[in-house]
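Human:
Class, as today's exercise, you are to examine the entry below, and be ready to discuss the fold:
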Amino acid sequence: MKKTISVVAACFNEQDNVDELYRRVVAVFERLDRYEFEFILIDNASVDATAERLKALAQQDARVKVILNSRNFGHIRSSFHALLQARGDAVIAMASDLQDPPEMIETFLAGWEQGYRKVVAVKPESREKSVLTGLRRMFYRSLNRISEMPLIENFTGFGLYDRVIMDHIRAMQDPYPYFRGMITEVGYDTLMVQFEQPRRARGVTSSNFLILYDIAMLGITNHSRLPLRVATIAGFVLSALTMLVALGYFLYKLLRWDDFAVGQAPMVIGLFLFFSVQLFFIGLLGEYVLAIHRQVMNRPLVVEKERINF
């Protein structure tokens, strides 16, 4: 009996890429005829012709399964919802902009057949050269240092995951997940496959600074308590330092009562320093509270407007 592979890709304004993505995925499985496959594509309320292209693909090929969201629910929630709909023996998650080469599916499946339940693609090099690319690389390196468990650097989620892994992830029931961290959280041996990410050939990426910041904060709040502990320690240290400075000024004033003037500059500088430190850590604490808030609200990942071929 043939094993079934679920290929999952999330789309937003990818009208110029989805047809080629479909052709390249089908071409891979034509060479690997020992597998059955389903291709799940979720559209996050695109404002171009992406939905129409997906419907056309689903009409000509019943293996293409399409989910259309009622509105834009964000990259994190939409992608994860699509993954949870997969019922194959293994699930392959990839982007729809062709920067995750579909031809790597064959390499993933070879690693899976060797017994690895997770086969992930890491990109130490990318042909996309931008300030955000460099910042992203620095962030993942820093997150790995402060995380309570080792995370996979230069990993975007592109890879293959056995049904056992997906069952563990479903059981977590996370309404706002950090998928890259969840993959590490479940354990099991991981095969890492290096590749050079190609440039985006068509279209414009929807990942801006705010989206990357959201993902970054999600990774920190989900996988590290160190920032909160730094805030607590900094509070103690700054309090002790303030007391020492105040004591020093007090003693010096007693000794030089007539000719010692404190002046306004040290007071203003000190106030601004302590206020800025407090504001920073209040904002940091707010990120953790926001993460708790998302969990407590427990809203659905997305609301579907339509699904095809399920």
The first strand starts at residue 3 and ends at 11. The longest helix spans residues 265-297. The chain has ten helices and eight strands.
